[in-house]
Each structure stands twice: as C-alpha cells, then as structure tokens.
Target: Phosphate acyltransferase
Amino acid sequence: MRLAVDAMGGDYAPQSTIEGCQLALDTYKDLELIIIGDNEKMAPYLKKSKRVKIIHTETVIEADDSPVKAVRRKKDASMVQAVQLVKDGEADAAVSAGNTGALMTAGLLVIGRTKGIERPALSPMLPTLNGDGFLLLDVGANMEAKSSHLVQYAIMGDIYMKKVRGVENPRIGLLNVGGESGKGTELVKQTYDDLSKLSLNFVGNVEARDLLEGAADVVVCDGFSGNLVLKSIEGTALSLFSLLKEELTSSLKNKLAAGVLKPSFKRVKDKMDYSEYGGAGLFGLNAPVIKAHGSSNKQSFFSAIKQAKIMHDEAVIETIRKSIENTKEAGE
Model:
C-alpha cells in the first residue's frame, strides 16, 4: 500500500507525524510512504528508507485558514498535495492531522464523493468504558442533514465496524433526547422509521448520557449534534483528569495515595485514550482519507495510519459503494 502523509499538519508536527510514520514502517513491511513537508524541519526525525519518498514544500495550511480559500490558493500545501496524490493514483490513501475543514474540502474537491453518497461524514471512534469504543457519524462535515444522509451514515458505519473493527453485527443507534420512537425532531423521527426498514442491527434511539456505556457500536446524527457530543466528551475527560491531578497532588497524604493507585489510574487513562482509536475517517469519499487528531502524538498518528491501511486492505470504500447501490435498488 502507498500512503500519502501530510507531515506538517497538527500541533506537534513534524516530529509526531514523522515518528508515527516510522512506527508504521516498522510495523507494516508492505507499507510505502510519500511524506510531504519541509525538508529542513523534518530532517532531524527522518530515517532513510527505500520505502519512503519525500516531497518538499514549505507551504502549510494553518489551523485558522479559511478551508475553501486555502485549498484553492495553496495548491502546493502539504495537505493538498497529499490528497492530490490519491486523486492521481500515486497513493491509495491520505492521512493528515491538519485543518479539519480544509481536509474535508480537499477531499471533496479533489478526490470526490463515493458514487451514491449524498453527503460525506466526519467519523471518529470514541472511547467507551468497556474499551471497545463506538463510531460517531457525523461530527461536523454537515451541520444540517436529511434522513437519507443519516441512513447512509448508518450503512457506512456498519461496513466500517465490520471490516475495520471486526464487529460481527454492529449495533446501530440514533442519537436522540429519549429512547422512545416518537421523541425528537422531525428529522430524527423520520430517520428512525427509515432505519427500522433496513436489515441493519438497528437498536433504536440512544441518549448522549449512555454513549460511554457502550449503548451502540455506531451512533448516527447530524453534524451539529455530533460536534457538540464530541467536544463535550473531550472537554469532560480533560477536565476530569485535571481535577484528579490537582486533588492527588494537593497534600503529602494524597501524593502517597496517588503513588499506590498510579497503575489503576493509568489503566483508566489508557482505556479512555483517543490515541488508540485512530483518527476520524472522512466517510463517503472515493478513497480513504483519515483526519488524525490535531494534538496527535506518535502513537495516535500511527493509529490513524493503521486505520487508513485497514480501510484500503479491506476495500471499505468499494464495499460502501456496492452497499449503497444495493440499498437504492431495493428501494426502487
């Protein structure tokens, strides 16, 4: 597999991205990388390899750049070049930890949507208390949605969980304010009816408070609601660990207790660590494009690469395309 990597996107680039790439090369002997970035800045972290090609550029799409303007005006930016390589057939997939909106825009404008998909979805894996995690679609690619969009999210999520996460019969949940079928907006009520007619393992409505309990393997919603859920989970986790750290270092007694409980706290932190789940897939494009977390360390960037590789190896995009076609034919 040939993977295009934007080495300059993210808070800790290029060190974290290059170190993540090296970990991936050590793990997957059939992996070839095309790394795009500033040679001078990447040099301290790069190791020579026959499986690595470097494309030099000093142009980067910044976090505060306007997505559409940046993609159109910065054609030589590391992110845009990575996506263009996929379009040109020189790479099978792309990974970036850079500007989310710009990556989505580049994916749509350059690679294009999967045939039959009306709207793509930005879809991260989020942690659950049992360690399995759940896939949330959508978290911001489309702030407004139709029922047909959410149905397609469910189909894409079902395929991803089967092919990439190895879940035999994924439970599909619909984010709502209550478990009853008659609750929620008109969008949610219509989607509930539409999902009930499919052969998916639809478990009905799920509430936000039950997500971390593992209420479903795939949770679908519009991008506005999904983004609120995502930011709430991230913010709550960060605040909780901050409070624990403050309390456990507030006195000598607490410090001694923290020393004894340190292994237990580490297990809790590891279980809730997003870095083990990979990045957010841009589902609905013609090739795998993975958005790694902006604050990715080498482990989380490696996990994003792993996600892209499995999606390619398991032909997830082609499976999604066929499933959407079959669903349309069945509805005609």
